[in-house]
Amino acid sequence: MKEKVQTLNEAINLHISDGDSVVMGACLEPMIPFAAAHEIIRQDKRELTLIAPISDILFDMLIGAGKVNKITGAWAGNVSAGLGHNYRRAIEEDTPVSIRIDDHSNFSLGLSLLAGSMGVPFLPTRSLLGTGLLESNDALKVEEYEGEKLVFVPSLTPDVAVLGVQRADKHGNAHLWGNTGVAQEAAMASKKVILLAEEIVDSAEIESDPNRVLIPGFKVTSVVECKAFSHPSPMQGYYQRDHEFFHDYHKQTKTREGFLQWLEHYVTGVNSHQEYLQKVGYETLNS
Hints:
alpha/beta, eight-stranded mixed β-sheet, 12 helices, 34% helix, 22% strand
């Protein structure tokens, strides 16, 4: 069986291209692949469509760095502090670029990815009837079926899903536990899957607990061993949410100048994820 292990730099360089649609943050608040977002910025990937129900500050950061032209999701901001400042500036001022929003609820986005994973063009729901989402997202269509009004939610088939897992083997078989969100749907719907794993383990360890396996390894494009890839978001069984980091981000990014200083300090001013961990004092935070 082919081994799929790559460095973070290699995985982003080889498998994410300008203009791609990318799922990041499929588990909602935990397991957000911040290390991948930092590398996307360092490699200057542009005109991305970002897809997720909740991404915490990851979407806001990529918007502020000028790497995004479209958001397909339910919300973009800082879960513990409020709407993202970069997101607001992009909508209100086209700063640094104008972005398009395809509004969803968490549930309807999950339906879109589930439809994509099933290979069907849409899935129906009642839950959006009477909501403003039908006005803000013209892809959501109200149709009648046997006398009943339903909203037809179109499928999504992203170019890439960047997903976090606690552990994986070299062939892409992986364990994910805790709040899995729409990670499985995103993986099955996407053309490529990059897994960021806290650790790479023997296949026997993965096989010993098949109930935790996210998707079959043959669906995975690349496996990256990347310690603390989701900092400052939490990882079930490994580390907690870094609340102070999130609050500091919200304060520092109130102005465009403040965000650029933050970006240079934590992302563009370091050469690797390991340097980032040293800068945030990860070992001290988790000792």
